[in-house]
């Protein structure tokens, strides 16, 4: 895999030419950025920018003004190769708060295993309805120590609109969910993305995560996607790299409070 070539493809398909990720979402190209304004309480963000030292501050101010007038929290998703190089400092000065850095990992679907059996005592269960997403949210709460919250509502809305749009899977120990993960498909691109892989503490280190990756890789292959992409945490990055994923950049969410900023 040519890392520079794939990174350029990712930037073009998944960021610069990004389409709405849900019904009612608006994507606009203005002031040198691509921004998404989510429907209702949906995710709002700047997903791409083409800025330099002379245009960055005005573009940042314009996006803060846009989302603050809507009373919306939003995220500026900064990648390690984005310009200008001091974009993080400029965002912080404008009132954004950085969240933990993650690593942009990409692998060719054809190079990944698609059949990794789970450990003894575990069965994999596809999520096909609202009750399955309730179990996925339960695992998320236990694995990460925080509620799935808004994401659960978004997933249920996507499930209602297209049951095949967000493949998800549970790892069950008997009737108890102990791990869960999902995948988002991006029609018209070469990429599917992996999200939310989490295992409760007492079941970690037994190979469940690898099985969940293989389960979703098989779906991506069946749907004709060429690449899998992950925004990987420090915990998942080593596992994914051993499976064949390569680090192409970093990604850091910079969050602006929006509504709170008005007070």
TrEMBL record:
One Gene Ontology MF term: acyltransferase activity, transferring groups other than amino-acyl groups
Stretches assigned to the N-acetyltransferase domain: 122-263
Transmembrane segments: none
Superkingdom of source: Bacteria
Organism listed in the record: Streptomyces antnestii
Family matches, as InterPro entries: Acyl_CoA_acyltransferase (IPR016181), GNAT_dom (IPR000182)
PROSITE patterns listed in its UniProt record: GNAT (PS51186)
Species classification: Bacteria, Bacillati, Actinomycetota, Actinomycetes, Kitasatosporales
Name assigned to this protein: GNAT family N-acetyltransferase
Keywords recorded for this protein, A-Z: Transferase
